[in-house]
Amino acid sequence: MRDVFIKQLQNSAGYWDVIVIGGGASGLGAAVEAASRGYRTLLLEQHDFAKGTSSRSTKLIHGGVRYLKQGNISLVLEALHERGLLIDNAPHLVHHQSFIVPNYDWWDGPFYGVGLKVYDLLAGKLGLRPSHLLSREETLEAIPTLEPHELRGGVIYYDGQFDDARLAINLAQTLIDQGGVPLNYMRVTGLLKNAGMVQGVVAVDQESGREYRLNGRVVINATGIFVDDILQMGDAQAPPIITLSQGVHLVLPREFLPGKTAIMVPQTSDGRVLFAVPWHGKVIVGTTDTPVRGATLEPRALEEEIDFVLRHAAQYLSKDPAREDVLSVFAGLRPLVNPGGESDTAAISRDHYLTVSHEGLVTIAGGKWTTYRKMGEDTINQAALVAGLSERESTTRKLRIHGWLKNVDPADPLHVYGSDAVLLRKMIAENPVLGESLHPDYPFLKVQVAWAVEGEMARTVEDVLSRRMRMLLLDARVSMEMAPAVAALMAPLLNKNDDWIGEQVAAYRLLAEGYLVGG
Questions:
Q1: Does the CA dihedral 53-59-62-65 come out positive or negative?
Q2: CA 30, CA 44: separation in Å to the nearest integer?
Q3: Nearest CA to 295 among 236, 350, 347, 231?
Q4: Is the pLDDT reported for residue 394 higher than 80?
Q5: Tell me, what DSSP letter sits at residue 389?
Q6: DSSP 8-state code for residue 192
Q7: Cα angle 300, 465, 309; round to 5
């Protein structure tokens, strides 16, 4: 599929209406918005779709209870509205998730009884189910592994949960469905200018090394943690607007949270909430808020962050998780918009930020997955003005995302593919070997590797195991065991040889070792 788009790039002439730099949540949202309005749209991503922050979230589609406590009502209102739209537009990936806020003798929790009622009211018609108080007995019945000592009771409320990287892949497919062109492994190395105004990009294909000069009526900088780098391509004197904060999540076996209900802890020592959430048969616990310098595509958890999460999780779980229990640890960098230079990252707003430079470069920064669609809508409204494009109404509020399927069976290993699961089953019917398991302990099938290459633009073993199948996050050690089989399946589909297989397996193992927790 990528080869087809490369040929299209080589043969295309004239101007793209919109060129989007960045293949994470904000870039994909903007590109889908543009293409769905009928604008000729190109999206360029330097690595793989959602390689950065957008595959490393807490996997929640939520209004943000803590923002309500901070008094940011507008952000909560917008996020709750977008949560409802996303559940309607991608029901195969986004579902309701119950949360309990436990109430202990040793912390003051009255806000969360009253505050969550306000949360319900703000959601309006797009609300899920009303929150309510639970007795001590009801709380322990819902979460039997919750620490019982000094537990008074709890408050149950409802938000959304999703698979972030899978949604990103489906958005890239949606972009294609709408006539747009998404290209991964296409790094933007410069901006083209005419009379001092940005009118395109210089991009290098990371696979072939070929350079492309691509003209666009408007260029959108949606590069997340790399926003400042692109701003300074346009103007070397542009002041930085991004402050980076690292969030770390630990993945534990399901035995630590065996039910369907998640835990939300509103008080940690660094001012963040702590979540323990069931996800794909495991438990994700996080997150931290650690100021860091320097953007990288592969951030690593600090030892003190791992200890922080384990220590706080132990306060709320009857069985204390230890380092040897951790199946995987992943870190993500939050690109927080901070033109004022605030030093406390937990206090910086999560609102999105839209700006146009003197050179006409449109930049979208900040925000979060929940509001990606609204960010895209706002961005294209502005970009259309900058480019002088014909005014067209947004249609994404009701645009079904690729794979849309109303009722899916979570027990089906192919349920995350939604309507595309029919195509995967057809592939198995034509080649029964593809129906074989990749590992005895996990439900992943060989067909998922083939589909990742043929239908989802996966180019490397990492693309498949990290973002198409999520094994890197679910169980880093087992994912290393799966790597040789994945590489062997991919090679003929990509016209690669045995040397490529060896290189891919070695590179993947080196990467995955960084997701293991030492003793």
A1: negative
A2: 12
A3: 231
A4: yes
A5: P
A6: E
A7: 35
Other CB atoms within 10 Å distance of the CB of residue 294: 8
Q: Return the structure tokens found at 498.
A: 């045995």
Query: Which has the closest alpha carbon to 102: 258, 254, 263?
Result: 263
pLDDT beyond 90 at 338: no
Tokens matching residue 148: 């019982």
Quick: pLDDT tens for 456-505: 999 999 999 999 999 999 999 999 999 999 999 999 999 999 999 999 99
Rounded CA-CA distance 8/24 in Å is: 22
Both tokens of 222, joined, read 């949606």
Partners of 307 in the β-ladder: none
Provide mean pLDDT across the span 223-235.
Answer: 96
CA 163 to chain centre: 7
Backbone angles phi, psi at 235, to 5 degrees: -150, 110
User: Would you state the structure tokens that stand for residue 121, as one six-digit string?
Assistant: 């009211």
- Quick one: pLDDT at residue 352? 85
Q: How crowded is residue 209: how many other Cβ atoms within 10 Å of its Cβ? A: 7
Q: Going along 357-439, which residue ranges are E strands?
A: 362-366, 437-439
Question: Residue 24 in 3-state DSSP?
Answer: coil
Residue 376 neighbours by CB under 8 Å, 6+ apart: 26, 28, 29, 30, 31, 32, 33, 34, 396
Maximum C-alpha span of the chain: 71
| 149 CB neighbour count, 10 Å cutoff | 9
Output the CA–CA distances (angstroms, integers) from residue 378 to 26, 29, 181, 367, 394, in the order listed: 11, 10, 21, 12, 10
Split at pLDDT 50, 70, 90, the class of 443 is very high
User: Look-up: residue for tokens 């014909």?
Assistant: 390
Q: What type of residue sits at position 278?
A: P
Structure tokens at 192: 């083209």
> In the structure, what pLDDT confidence band is assigned to residue 113 with cuts at 50, 70 and 90?
low
Q: How many CB atoms lie within 10 A of CB 92?
A: 25
In terms of Cα–Cα distance, which of 318, 285, 276 is closest to 148?
Answer: 318
Q: pTM of the prediction?
A: 0.95
Instruction: Retrieve residue 288's tokens.
Output: 């931290």
Residue pLDDT, tens place only, 262-299: 999 877 766 678 999 999 999 999 989 899 999 999 99
Domains identified in the chain and CATH numbers: 2-53+165-241+346-398 (3.50.50.60), 78-161 (no CATH), 247-337 (3.30.9.10), 415-513 (1.10.8)
Is residue 75's pLDDT more than 90?
no
